[in-house]
Amino acid sequence: MLKIGVVGCGLQAATIAGYMGVYNDDYEVSVVVDIDFENARSRMAQKQVRIAEDCRFYHTVEEFLAAPSQLNGIIIGTYCADHTEMACKLEVLGVPLYVEKPVAITVEQLRKLYKTFKNSKTPVEVSLPMRLCPLTQRAKVIIDSGLLGPVHQVIGYEDTPGEIYFSTWFRDAEKTGGMFMQKAVHDIDYMFYLAGGNPVQVCGMRTKHYYVGDKPYDLTCDQCPDAMTCPEGPCAAFRERGHWNSVPEALEKLSYTVTPDGLIRKKRYCVYSKDIAIEDMGECIIKMDTGAHVAHSQNFIAQNHACRRGARFCGSLGTLEIDFNNSELDFYSHRNRTQEHYVVDQGKLSHYGGDRELVADFLRVMKTGERPRTDLIYGNGIMSTMACLCARDSADSCKYIDIEL
């Protein structure tokens, strides 16, 4: 029986905890550390997590460390700003840790994390599923075969709706660190993994163009006098975008989040609220020690068929394009007219099937003590966070930033 602890039982931590049984392993969550016990229980019920009958609940890590239980692994899913602190405090237990990305939201935090775990025997798996998903792994085989030759340029992109980020807790930059940390860290990681080499310098830009306004920070659609004419309001959602079955239903959905068990009602706030500090578009260009350029752009304005996520890898001999939303790869030869198309089954689990592999790694780590493929130190699970932190600093200072721990 694997004994699991969860520190910060948000949606993603509960999701991963619920996945612990997908390989038919016998497990149970026996410790939960969370400021809101009711929310934690509801999240775990929603994700069908197996909870021990004698599961212990603590409000703080300090309470847990005062009388620690024997655990095989701990999942850290607190707000992003607390990932470093929780991991560093739990290092003393020597228990394998699974840490949600980003592992830090400041350079100071990241350097503390690196110093704590550089020579530690505690394995730390970083939640970087896109590196491990079937599409990326297939791309790795193609690149390693030599079909592209040396990779010289990578152009990555994600265009996706931003409503969830500007209406919920993600809007709080003090908790997330901004959208480089919240989103680009995934893409930067898999692009580094496929391109090879290490980042040495970055320049970045970020701004907010669309989600701007003067509405109160805590305003919801059901309280807003402009809701029916708002381009992101319930009428537009129902009539123009075809979401939900009626304007009243859209109004409810845009004002509150209700879980399937009906126990949680969390407010969804106006996306045009003032004082939202996160950006809705950003770009960065990273120089690698191989001489290659890795560029990434993201925006949270695109809707419907305009949404996309992927990258193009240009080498001496060919170009490879990854399309995550359609589960496709395309290889184009530079030497002849060859074009190869691949459709890759991603499976059923989240993050394009990458969470399936993260869970397999964490189960193996708990059983054998081996390092995971996205280990913080030995699996280079720290570098995409550092690159994104430096990209954010570059965007805010309008300067090139050297990337170094």
Features:
405 residues; alpha/beta; Rossmann fold; Dihydrodipicolinate Reductase, domain 2; 9-stranded mixed sheet; 17 strands
What do you see in this structure?
By secondary structure, this protein is an alpha/beta fold. The protein has three domains: 138 residues, 3-Layer(aba) Sandwich (Rossmann fold); 176 residues, Dihydrodipicolinate Reductase, domain 2; 47 residues, no CATH class. Helices cover 32% and strands 24% of the residues. Strands 16-15-14-13-7-12-11-8-17 form a nine-stranded mixed sheet, covered by helices on one side. A six-stranded parallel sheet has the order 3-2-1-4-5-6, with helices on both faces. A hairpin with a 6-residue loop joins strand 9 and strand 10. It is globular, with a radius of gyration of 22 Å. The mean pLDDT is 95.
Number of domains: 3
Instruction: Compute the CA-based radius of gyration.
Output: 22 Å
- CATH topology category name of the largest domain: Dihydrodipicolinate Reductase, domain 2
Indicate the proportion of strand residues: 15-25%
Share of helical residues: 25-40%
Structural class by sheet pairing and helices = alpha/beta
Identify the CATH homologous superfamily of the largest domain. Answer: Dihydrodipicolinate Reductase, domain 2
Number of strands: 17
The major beta sheet can be summarized as: 9 strands, mixed
Tell me, briefly, the overall form. globular
CATH class of the largest domain: Alpha Beta
**What is the strand arrangement across the widest sheet?**
16-15-14-13-7-12-11-8-17
Output mean pLDDT: 95
Q: What's the helix count? A: 14
- In CATH terms, what is the architecture of the largest domain? 2-Layer Sandwich
Distance between the termini: 39 Å
